[in-house]
Amino acid sequence: MPHLDRYKLETTVFDGSVVHTTYTTDLESRQRRTPVQTRWTDKKTLGAGGFGIVVLQETDGGELRAVKKLLKGMGNIDYSRELKMLSKVAHRNDLFVLFMGWYENAECIYIAMEYIQHGDLSQYIKIPKFCTPKNTREITRQLLEGLQILHQLEICHRDLKPQNVLVASTDPVWVKIADFGVSKCTKRTILRTRFMSQGYASPELLGLLPLTDMTYTNEIDIWALGCIVHEMLTGEIPFLDSPQYFDSQLSLGSEPDDAQMPQTDVIALKAFCDGSIEFPTDRMRRSGVSDAAEECVKSMLVGIPKFRVTAQDALQSDWLLPDGYLEAGAQPNAEQSRRNHMLVSSRPFLSCFPTMFG
Question: Where in this chain does the record put each Protein kinase domain (predicted)?
Fold first, then answer.
């Protein structure tokens, strides 16, 4: 993994802690290369999944980070894929969780990321005071900006859902896309393997379309986002057998039991894709969703993938246009605050790689 070696942290792994060694240059003391050691100690487990855990680590100075610990030798999983995706979006930590490097030992690969203390969107999505029309609009904009970048880089996330959207700030609202464990580059490859989360899986992933080659594209991310936006606006995921679904407190790689997962009403969804029924807008209308917001959601939730709106075009919808957005009373400095944070938080990130950045 030559490209990823630039992000590899020089590390000594201990039981319950690790020590990273970085190097600094001090002209006054005429020290060209001085080693600096930083110890990170495990504090608690944040989440667990089938292939590893996520732990909270802290330095002696009180800095926090989240570390994904992945067991080697688990099936045919290529862990370098997640590292590659994180490295490709590392310059936009206003939209994606900040990648702080990686390290390994004989048993595991460790991926270090910023710790976002507010948790993930699944913890807020049923709270009306959080999912206001203004906040929902801003979250939609931010997630579309993230998907626009991913798709321009020819990356398909493949598992966009509230648990993989981290809440960096609640006021002004600011979210980041996380967990690239099943993401894949679409350049010179065909997507066939089906990764899905019930409730957010597109019709093509569920096998409801008459596709002969059973492939899919970036449009699955747009469908998943449409489901998330619908859920924020109405409190319900579209095309469910029952409006009662799990209230997950899991994040960063944790998965609820199958019995807790929402189940898609495949009969209704197939009928919609076949054109037998219209898109069910009754939930949005009962919730007082504006016509512009409804049209934006419907443009993402189109049954035939090639007719689904792109992230770039969705950002130009009437609901999300800047003028209408500001007239609705949104914070005009929300975007600037995110970009300012990106510049500030990038400084310690860059210092982790002295050989790369001088």
Answer: 40-320
Please give the structure tokens belonging to residue 353: 């790689």
Three-state DSSP class for 135? helix
Helix (H) or strand (E) holding 184: strand 184-185
User: What are the CB-based long-range contacts (under 8 Å, 24+) for 210-215?
Assistant: 215/190, 215/191
Query: And the tokens for 198?
Result: 């019930």
CB 178 within 8 A of CB 109: no
CA dist., res. 343 & res. 91, Å (int)? 9
Which single residue is written with the structure tokens 């393997």?
193
CA nearest to 150, candidates 108, 116, 187, 193: 187
Structure tokens at 75: 């099936």
Q: Tens digit of pLDDT for each residue in 102-114? A: 999 999 999 999 9
Predicted structure pTM score: 0.82
